[in-house]
UniProtKB/TrEMBL annotation, chains A, B:
It comes from the Bacteria. Residues 38-57 bind DNA. Pfam families: TetR_C_31, TetR_N. This is TetR family transcriptional regulator. Keywords: DNA-binding. SUPFAM superfamilies: Homeodomain-like, Tetracyclin repressor-like, C-terminal domain. It comes from Actinoplanes utahensis. InterPro entries: Homeodomain-like_sf, HTH-type_TetR-like_transc_reg, HTH_TetR, Tet_transcr_reg_TetR-rel_C_sf, TetR_C_31. PANTHER family: HTH-TYPE TRANSCRIPTIONAL REGULATOR PKSA, HTH-TYPE TRANSCRIPTIONAL REGULATOR RUTR. Residues 15-75 form the HTH tetR-type domain. One of its GO terms (molecular function) is transcription cis-regulatory region binding.
DNA sequence: ATTACATGTGTACGCTCGTACGCATGAGCA
DNA sequence: TGCTCATGCGTACGAGCGTACACATGTAAT
């Protein structure tokens, strides 16, 4: 006896299960942190039996790597597109401001995921690679409009502004973000 | 039988044990992360029996809070002193540069502890209070020499610079740090 | 010297975890 | 139709965890 019969679903044939599991993993990380992310928690979030985790992934590290890869790539893509579209330096500055103030700090965007990635990457080589690929990509995008030194510095500034806002009870307003970036770039 | 007799120390009467445990906790956090920090790991690091943890602390949260409080206060103290000693704005800029380039980024300084604190604080109210007290204190120190907007912005910049350096395989040099800060403040 | 109590120590309990693995099942192909 | 195997499912196992708690011991007050 395993307890009350668990609502016998007959959910065979679930083609995008792997994808759904990766999304569920991101949701769990955002809610409970990497430390609170377990096979069981992800399975519960995706409404899938525990045994399914072993089948689709090689282990927890595997899931984390796939989840964070998806997360960073979706950010990097937007970053790339906006900066590629910019034609002048002023447009590039505007693109950066918009990205940070409107996208990274928008309520729907789970800023905490980024910090979680950083910490996890400190001790997980695979996640470190994910982090670095991402940093490289955003710096490459910046270098198209700014000299390498400026690109690196503004990259760090963006990091600090978002992190600061993510953790403060009194987050910076979009106007303050704009002021800080423009002060640096104009 | 518990296994090989564990080197019968007679270590009774250990007056600063609590202090040593807090230091050991910081060492364990730096090495294994908050997620890998357990009573047993700290006890091992301090060479103390497991039972001692229960006696000296109310739980793991209690230890973490005390450890991070010690960590942030030791940084804040230096920050305060240096900025209080500065008499002119130029001296204040110099103090900030030195703090970041020489202290925060020095090899002995465990930068990763800061990031660990941030992540842990996101889900632990007590640690959130520790983080905010620290941020407030460093901003107060900056406000003695810079206007509030500048103080807040440079605070974020420092955050980004140190974080960036902590995670990159190609960390910024002290000269690059100096360049970034001076560009912003002069 | 006796006592009281703060401190130190060892161990046990119940829990959750990652992972392995045997069995079930149904989709796609011959 | 019948076969086959990728996929799905349930459960079990051993390990490590936080915590509680009974007992030991040394200090300091009387």
């Amino acid at each position: 006896m395993t307890g009350a019969a668990p609502a016998r679903r007959t959910r065979r044939h679930d083609p995008h299960r792997r994808d759904r599991l990766i999304d569920a993993a991101l949701a769990v990380i955002a809610e409970h942190g990497v430390a609170g992310t377990t096979h069981r928690e992800i399975a519960r979030a995706a409404d899938v039996p525990l045994g399914s985790m072993t089948y689709h992934f090689d282990g927890l590290d595997d899931i984390l790597a796939e989840a964070f890869t998806r997360h960073t790539e979706s950010i990097a893509r937007v970053f790339d597109e906006r900066l590629t579209a910019a034609r002048t330096r002023d447009e590039a500055v505007e693109a950066v401001v918009t990205l940070v103030a409107d996208d990274l700090l928008s309520p729907g965007h789970d800023l905490i995921l980024t910090v979680e990635l950083y910490v996890a990457a400190a001790r997980n080589p695979r996640l470190k690679a994910v982090t670095q690929a991402w940093m490289q990509r955003s710096r490459d995008a910046l270098v198209r409009h700014f000299d390498p030194t400026t690109a690196r510095e503004v990259d760090a500034l963006i990091e600090g502004l978002t992190l600061h806002s993510a953790l403060s009870t009194d987050p910076m307003t979009p106007a303050q973000i704009r002021h800080a970036i423009e002060r640096y770039l104009r």
